[in-house]
Structures are given as structure tokens and as C-alpha cells.
Design a protein that fits this description.
4 copies of one chain form a homotetramer. Chain A is α/β, with parallel strands linked by helices. Chain A has 2 domains: 5-84, Alpha-Beta Plaits; 90-282, Formyl transferase, N-terminal domain (Rossmann fold). In chain A, 33% of the residues lie in helices and 29% in strands. Chain A has helices at residues 18-28, 62-75, 100-110, 129-135, 149-162, 179-184, 204-211, 246-269; strands at residues 5-13, 33-41, 46-54, 79-84, 90-95, 117-123, 139-141, 167-170, 188-192, 215-222, 232-239, 273-276, 279-282. In chain A, strands 7-6-5-8-9-10-11 form a 7-stranded mixed sheet. Chains in contact: A-B, A-C, A-D, B-C, B-D, C-D. The A-B interface holds A 39, 42, 195-199, 211-215, 217, 231-237, 241-243, 245, 278-282, 284 and B 39, 42, 195-199, 211-215, 217, 231-237, 241-243, 245, 278-282, 284.
Chain lengths: 284, 284, 284, 284
Amino acid sequence: MASASAILQLICPDRPGLVSALSGWVAANGGNIRHADHHTDAGAGLFLSRIEWGLDGFGLPREAIAPATAALAARLGGEGQLHFSDAPPRVAIFVSRQDHCLVDLLWRTRAGELPMEVALVVSNHPQLAGVCDSFGIPFAHQPIDAASRDAGEEAQLALLAEHRIALVVLAKYMQVLSPAFLARFNAVINIHHSFLPAFQGAQPYHRAWERGVKLIGATAHFVTEELDGGPIIEQVTMPVSHRDEVDDLIRIGRDAERLALARALRLVLRHQVMVYRGRTAVFA
Amino acid sequence: MASASAILQLICPDRPGLVSALSGWVAANGGNIRHADHHTDAGAGLFLSRIEWGLDGFGLPREAIAPATAALAARLGGEGQLHFSDAPPRVAIFVSRQDHCLVDLLWRTRAGELPMEVALVVSNHPQLAGVCDSFGIPFAHQPIDAASRDAGEEAQLALLAEHRIALVVLAKYMQVLSPAFLARFNAVINIHHSFLPAFQGAQPYHRAWERGVKLIGATAHFVTEELDGGPIIEQVTMPVSHRDEVDDLIRIGRDAERLALARALRLVLRHQVMVYRGRTAVFA
Amino acid sequence: MASASAILQLICPDRPGLVSALSGWVAANGGNIRHADHHTDAGAGLFLSRIEWGLDGFGLPREAIAPATAALAARLGGEGQLHFSDAPPRVAIFVSRQDHCLVDLLWRTRAGELPMEVALVVSNHPQLAGVCDSFGIPFAHQPIDAASRDAGEEAQLALLAEHRIALVVLAKYMQVLSPAFLARFNAVINIHHSFLPAFQGAQPYHRAWERGVKLIGATAHFVTEELDGGPIIEQVTMPVSHRDEVDDLIRIGRDAERLALARALRLVLRHQVMVYRGRTAVFA
Amino acid sequence: MASASAILQLICPDRPGLVSALSGWVAANGGNIRHADHHTDAGAGLFLSRIEWGLDGFGLPREAIAPATAALAARLGGEGQLHFSDAPPRVAIFVSRQDHCLVDLLWRTRAGELPMEVALVVSNHPQLAGVCDSFGIPFAHQPIDAASRDAGEEAQLALLAEHRIALVVLAKYMQVLSPAFLARFNAVINIHHSFLPAFQGAQPYHRAWERGVKLIGATAHFVTEELDGGPIIEQVTMPVSHRDEVDDLIRIGRDAERLALARALRLVLRHQVMVYRGRTAVFA
């Protein structure tokens, strides 16, 4: 079993010598690089890097690494984020009444596929309490509708604060988070039940059926104020035919949704996803 | 080698006994059914059927079959289309300057994958004359632009009539056919370089890049007056990543376009595709 | 909601008039055909048919249909199997210690995707009792190993008889059923963790890693005496890369296994799969 | 348009500081790294790296770079290979009678997808001379069979030497190269018409049909003495059904073969593939 590692995500203006500067800093402190991925967006003039190194024998104490990498990033004119592989984030899963993504995520977490601590499940409906109970996860029933959205979101944000949540996963949560919510908490991943940007908005499977598509899809993305417009992390498509009714599209789509969300979440939890300028770089 | 077959496509209001009526008619005339596919669109109350039987030993002379099936269809309150497998349609391929779909279609035709007779290639640009020449296919350079569209389309329609064309394939033809053209000739297949309905219209790969999608696609569809809105026959997607620039999306997309168009065209040429109410049933 | 339907699977020597004979029989008894699929294996000289019709208003009482279709099949020189859509089979799921397929199947059954009654789960290990309990399914712990296989299989067969099991699903059951077992109960589906016939036998992911494959797969198949040699129902592949260790192949493979097994089982439960001469026709 | 770049592939025993040593060397000479990919095979204790940097403004003259990187690799106890992006390798394509891969490769080369110079096509049959002629590529008809293999391979090797060939692509060349040939020329890529290791050897589509598989595949790999056993570069699968005869599998397989070979060859030509211990690392 490998020891814990530190993961630095850095973004800065592109110029010669950046890979050397980053890897040199790690080496100078005695670190052994396990993964190093870089991407240059030539159009944007930006350099993105993800470096992961083992903490065993690293020259800096753990609490000194973040300040040091922040200083390094500042020297390069950019910004960095530091993570440790042995500090899985506390996550809240938001659901409504559909359980397929929830069951899948809880099973995958138990199976060790998703390095996170599911601190609680929040729902505007009571139906999925039993599922959470069977996995031993706290369930918070928090009714919310158009009229009560402001108060409901306040309550949700209080729950996130109370449980020290770092990431929210919308696993078929059939409500739109308000801009006010997102202004206060913006680490949110959603699974949309279409191959975005096709069929943005409501009832994508009904509209896909009407359009007579031959593939349906699902898109996992970060949530922004623009509905279904946030940076895409992962997309999955599956074939359908004229024999498939809307109910079949919904059924087949559940498999696409489960796969896309689980893959995207694993990438995010392992800090393999960097977001910039409305898009993602995914170091898979 | 199997003998030639007759293929009946029939659409009529759904009611009990239709499969029996159709297959009974074939059997009563001594035909051996090779393929029989049926689909009921319950919402529309429609029954769609494709029946293919061998002509060897069939009781009706070839020229009597179409009238007989038309009478049968009329009795069922519907409409039928009859085709013979040994009468490949005469096809015109419309292109502009990109040759990937053209080369692919001509090669597949030569390889025996596409049962059609490519009577001519029509282009608004002169560049692909050499490709056609190497495959021994007539090439008609027919310049056309916004100002000359009406006259150009007249000339195109005259070519279609002169060459007795039954089907037009738009193989990266970068012009929009006018409603007037389609009113006079509407058996037209197009390959659109996106996963419709995402990125309808121009420059889909540029827009796909901007949106940061993780899959790109191609859609083969029948052409209607509504731009990129006709019945979909086949769709193909391929994975892309943040490393792929617009040029890479275009390159990878060429493979999706070639596959989607070739698969769709083969299905159409074998009369496996039925169009109704803006959608297709594909008996693959 | 559609009423219940009868499903006839028939296999007989090919000759003209079979589609008509079958559909004519349904029509003569007042049945409305919902789906009719046929396949001719020209090399084998065999005709395979699956016909599904609504029971509402059908002229024969339910108990008379099976004898009538058996007589019809006999007249055609073949054999038929009759099923009713509202009589989901009683199924036993065999597992060992891995739970991914089990959780998936139980969830899909609860979600209405799999028309079966899971009568019990049988395992040679005790670990998955809790999973079954959370879904309210009886769990039978039946230890078995090489030395105790005969006695263990006797006990398993007694369980199958006691619970009137019609189908056994091996959902990562890491034991081989003996020819003696299969001689007495042969309706068994297995999920094999490779793209058969690659990597038959044990430890396919280790061997796939050693071989450096770029795709891994899973195969759902009927079980026969020949290890991993039974008729294939469904296969799924997923991409892997040099970055993936054996553990990653196992993890990614779990998704392929879940999908392949669930798709295959749904097809079998809806009587869309016909087995003949060591292969399957899948009327999807 | 980016200027030309140098590409260093290096493999050496793993130890801390390697990324820094490599990138530091590039930076110290004023190079701007465009891509840097690394992989550690922990089991083998090996570090693999591919670094690409722009030649514009690089401190060393072009002819001095290879000696300098060789010295660097030696210091690290490993071996390096240096390539320049503007020096496309001279390639010979070996074919027999099937033209689908050949037409595809020649078209892709003309379209700019494959950075290589096709110096000649070699065939043991005369049929494809016309295809080569239409693309302006020299064609060498070199009959060969079991009896004449030694002399034939001598003639082939002489052709490779005469044309200064760096890479041979077997594009449906239906002969096995002898160990003696490979001992003298081993930069050879092959496309095998199955999803290896399934169906090694002859007639894979016939055997796939007999086995009743639901997916067929193609595998692009480096050629070694072990038949169909060399390092895998790329694999593609496509769905088939019981309706597909052997001829259909062959037809559908052609698409898998074309895609797998073209993708693999592009990766090799861009020096994105590293071979070690019978496997590949593909930095895509």
C-alpha cells in the first residue's frame, strides 16, 4: 500500500520553465513524484498542472506544505490548491425521490471506489430515508418548493456548515439551486439526464424521444448560475432504437447517469479535475 | 448466393391481424419470407412493417407485385412501398471541398457494402474531380452561392432528372437546399457534424470545443425544410478530452461522420428505414 | 398500461409459410400481435420465432394456450415454449463474497427493471446476508468447497426445488457447478469477468493486465458443462490504459459486469433470448 | 502554426527527482515544454517519460540534442530516444489483396492525419497496384509463399534498405514475418482482425461467429516473434448480433480494423507510444 500523497493543482500564465520549477521544488524537498500532468491552453495562454508526490520522507512537515505551495504559485503568478490523499472530503448528497444514483454512490463508497466521507443525505422528499438507513448514512428531510426556496436553502446551507461539507453532489435532485445559494457554496456537482448541450432544461428524455435520437446520454458537470451550463466533467451515451418508449429511455438513461456521475465524482475526489474559464481539464 | 428478394414497407392504422394478413398474402403467393419486422407506435396508433421474401418461385410475375401490394395496402387502409433487392437505386452524391465522406462512400460501394449505383458526384467546388476520376465516377462541377442559388438548384434538379437519380446523399455539402428544391426532390440524406440536436447550424466543432464537451458526435438524417431537423437515422459519438483542440475535434469527427453516414446509407439502401411523423423506425 | 401478453418461442426446420402459419394462428384466435421477431439460420436450416400477443380478448382460455401452441409447433415439426408476461419466474441468485452484481440486481428488481421474483440468495460465504436483509430477500448460507461439493450441490438443488426456482443467476459465484448439477438444473446464467473467449478460466483481470489489453470486458452467458463455453447473451467492453493497475481493471470491470449481467437477465426474463446449437438469438 | 518540436522518450529505473532532472535539463537549455507525460510501473520499478519541447529558441543546435539526451539518459541509468516532429518517418505498407486499410491509410496521410512519408507499398499480390497509383505511391509486387519465403523476405529487406524505411505497417498483410526477418527489422505494426487475445491465429471472424460473440474487435499491435502476441497499442470493438453472418462480421470488422490501425499508427508516428516488457504505455 502506497503512503499518503500530496496533490498540487496549479494554474498560471504559460511561460518556459514551469514544469521544471514545479518538479524541481518537489525534488528539492525530497519528494518522489507519483504523477505529473500538465496542460497548456495555448489560446488562453494558461498553464495547468497537477503534481502528486508521496509524503513519506518529504522534507516539509504536513502543515507547512500548503503555505509553501501557495508561495510557489504566487511566484509563478498563479494560484494553487493543495490536497492530501488521506483526507477524503466530507460530502453531502442531495436527492429527491429517485434512488438509482444514490444507491450507486453509497455502494461505491462502501466498496472503496469513491474516496469521500458521506456525511449526510439531504432530500426534499422523505422516500429515500430507508435507503440511507440501510447504508448507515444520516438522512435529512428538508422540504422545499418554489414558495419556500429561500428558507429551505438557508436550512440547507446551515446543514452544510454544521456538517463541515466540502462538496455537494446533486444525485437526481430535481430542484434548481438559486444564485444566492451558489454564491455562498459553489462546490457542487450535478448529473444531468441528457447529452448536454442537447436537451437542456426539463424532461430531456421526453424531448429525446420526440426528436427520435438514436443515442441518449448523461452529463456530469459542475453547477453554475447558468442552468445546465457549468463545466462538463464526464459524458456517457448509450444506444436506443425506435422500439424504446419514453420509459425505456428513462430506464436506459439511469445506467448512463450512474456511470457518468460515478466516474466524474471519482475524478473530482482524486483531484484529477481542474476548472478554468468555464471548462475542465481532466487528468485521467 | 440468395436469389433476389422483394421488400415491402407498409404503414397503416394498427389493428389485430395485420401480421397475419401480410405474411398470409406472401405465403398464399408461394413466397418464402426472409425477414419480417414489425413495429407498433402505440401513441400514434400506427403499425409499421417491413417484409422481405425471395422472388424465386414466387407466384406473381415481377411487374404484378407492386400493383398487388398497393391493393393490399389500400385494403388495410395504409400505404406501401415495394422494392427489389437487385435494383440498386441510382444515387447522386453532393460534396463541397472535404473528401473524407466521399472517398469512404466510393470505396464502400466498390467493396460491395453499399448496394447503389453512384451515377454522379455534384459539387459547388472543383477540387474533388480527381477523387471521382480515380473511382471512375462522373463529376459535375456546379458552382452555386447565395446569389446564384435558384439557378444553381435548377441546374442540379436537371442533373438529377437527366441521370434518373432516386436518392441524393449530402456528403459534407456545405450548402442548404432550399424548400423549393426539397418540394421537387425530397429523397435526401445528410451527415451533420454534431450529435443533434446539440449544435444545430454552423461550426458545431468550434461550439463543442467552447462548451467543453467530452464526447463529439455525428448524425445522419433525412433532410427536411427545417435545418438539421429531419428524421434521424444514425448517430455516432467518440470521446475527446481537454487536450483536443478544435482541429482535433474536426479530425476525430471525420471518423464519426464517415461511420454514421455509411451505416445510415446502407440501412436506407437496403430499405431497412421507415420514416413517419418526423421520425424513423430502423429495422436493423 | 398494457394487459398481460403471451409469448411463444418456436424453433423448427425452415420452410415457406412459417410466419404466416404462426401469425395466422394468433389472428384466428383473435389475438393482437404486439411483437413478432423471426430469424432464419440458413446454414442450420432452422427458423426461430418469438411472437408476443395480448391476452385481452384472446379466444382461448389461458390454460388452453400452451397445449394449443405445442400442437401447432408439433405440426411444424418443431418445438415451442410458452410464457406469460404476468408470471415472472422465481429466481435464485448465487453469490460468493463480492456484492456489486447482487446489489445491482436487487436494486433493479425493486426499481421494476427486472420482471422476476427473487425467491432467495444462496452463498457459500456468510458476508452478504446483510445486503439481502436490507432488501428483504431470504439468504441461505450454504458452505461448499471441493471436498464437500457433492453434498453442497445436493443441498442447493433441494433449495431450488423447495423454492420452486425456475432460473439461477450466478452473480459472481466463484464456484464451478458440476455436470451432475447441470444435468438436473440447467437454467443458469453466469457473468464472466472477461470478454470471452479471451481469458477463459480464473483471474482474467490479472491476465488482461499482463497482456496489456486496452479494453476489458464482461460476458453474460448460459452455463453449460464446458467452462465459460456456454451460449453468449451479452458482452460489454470498457477502455483501460497503461495507468490502470490490476485493481483498476477489477474496479472498471465491475461496471462492465453489472451492465452485461443486468442487460442479459432482462432479455432472458422477457423471453427475448432463444438458445440453439450453442448460440443465442437475441430479439432486442 | 507551432514550430517544430523535439520529443524525448526515456525509460530508466525509478527514483526520486526524475521529472525534475528531465524538465530541468530542458529548461536549462531554454526549451519550453509543450507536453510532459510520465508513468511509473511500480511493479517493474521503471520510470517512463515522454517530453516534448519547442525547438524555437532552444539553446542547443539540432545535431547536438541527441548526443546530449543520450548522455542525460545514461546519467539516469536508462535509455532515451530522440525524435523531431518535422522529420516524419519513411514508412512501407505491406498488403495482400484487401484494400480497406490501405485506402484508409493513404487517404489519412493525404489529409494530414498521419505524419509519415509513405515511401512504398509492398504486396505479395498484384491487385492493389491501381489503388497505389491513384494516390501516387510506388507499388512493389513481391510474390511470396511458404516455399519462397526466405528469398522473398530477402527481397523485402532489400527494398526496406533501399528506401530507407523506418517503420513497416502490415495493413492486412496475410503472411507471417519470419523470426529471421524480425531479427533484422523489428519496427513493425500489425492490425489483427480480432479482439486479442481472443481468436489468435487464422480466420478469427469465422471463429467469432461460431462462438456467437456479441461484439467483434480489432487489435493494432507491434509484431514480435510470438504470433499475435506483441505489445498492444489500440483495440476497438463493435456490436454484432445473431442476424450477422460471417460476411457481416467481416464487413463490420473492416471498420474496427481501419479505426484501430489508424489510431495506433498516429500514436506511434507522434511518438506517443513507449514499449517495455512486452507492453505499451500510450501517452494520448
